[in-house]
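4.2 Preliminary Data

To establish feasibility before requesting continued support, the project team ran the inverse folding procedure on a target of 258 residues. The structure was first converted into the token representation described in Section 3, and no sequence information of any kind was made available to the design step. The complete token record follows.
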């Protein structure tokens, strides 16, 4: 690499200069570009194309065919240039931090054009059979069930459906799980457009969220104080309204739950 630049300076993309590409690998819509030297020193540029992302290559001085100012990453090896546009994930990580095991076991990607709902639900049922105490809050973030759902949409979808985040999976039927995953997916897609606020389509108003990152503030629907706690084996912070999302003692979530 003779030059490297990135829109996000936090990537530290300059670390690639002087390195050599050792490997380019596609895993689903994840593209992994390895930069030597190998071993613990190896860096991997991990990009995910989502629905609109792309890599382009050109010779020096030739047009990209896309606005250069919009490129998220440009890497150069002499006259050979490669640029990445509109990816939904761009990160530069050490090979040993990449968790290739978890990448290879990823569930169907919610950002592809047509979500493989059958495969997602097969994974939900397998998880329910193996670990019935898995909470619905954990399930939505489990990338081996459906890949791509983030914490914002997990929290907001559970609020919108009035579901207690700690409900164990053996008390959530297939329709309810499918409904929640579908809601996360549609919110995620609706917010992919340029400049869209992440909370725009949750119904809470422009750029606002119902509960995510609102711990200690009054619920926008009922005024009860929004709470938060760590949830799951690799804990991520869940936000919920204890009144709107009250536990339903003994009941089975049979949905879509209103
Ligand atoms: Zn509330």
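Position-by-position output of the design step:
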């Amino acid at each position: 690499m003779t030059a490297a630049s990135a829109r996000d300076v936090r990537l530290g993309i300059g670390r690639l200069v002087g390195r050599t590409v050792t490997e380019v690998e596609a895993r689903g819509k994840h593209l992994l570009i390895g930069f030597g030297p190998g071993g613990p020193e190896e860096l991997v540029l991990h990009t995910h194309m989502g629905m609109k992302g792309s890599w382009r290559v050109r010779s020096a001085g030739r047009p990209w065919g896309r606005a250069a100012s919009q490129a998220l990453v440009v890497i150069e090896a002499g006259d050979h240039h490669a640029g990445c546009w509109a990816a939904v994930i761009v990160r530069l990580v050490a090979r040993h931090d990449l968790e290739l095991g978890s990448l290879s076991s990823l569930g169907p990607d919610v950002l592809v054009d047509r979500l493989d709902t059958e495969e997602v639900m097969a994974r939900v049922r397998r998880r329910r059979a193996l670990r019935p105490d898995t909470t619905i809050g954990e399930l939505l973030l489990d990338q081996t069930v459906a890949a791509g759902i983030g914490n914002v949409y997990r929290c907001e979808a559970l609020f919108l459906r009035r579901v207690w985040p700690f409900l164990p999976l053996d008390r959530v039927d297939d329709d309810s799980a499918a409904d929640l995953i579908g809601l996360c997916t549609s919110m995620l897609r609706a917010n992919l457009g340029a400049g869209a606020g992440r909370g725009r389509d949750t119904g809470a108003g422009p750029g606002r969220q119902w509960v995510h990152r609102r711990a200690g503030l009054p619920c926008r629907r009922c005024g009860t104080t929004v709470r938060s706690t760590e949830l799951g084996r690799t804990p991520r912070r869940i936000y919920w309204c204890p009144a709107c999302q009250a536990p339903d003692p003994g009941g089975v979530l049979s949905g879509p739950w209103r």
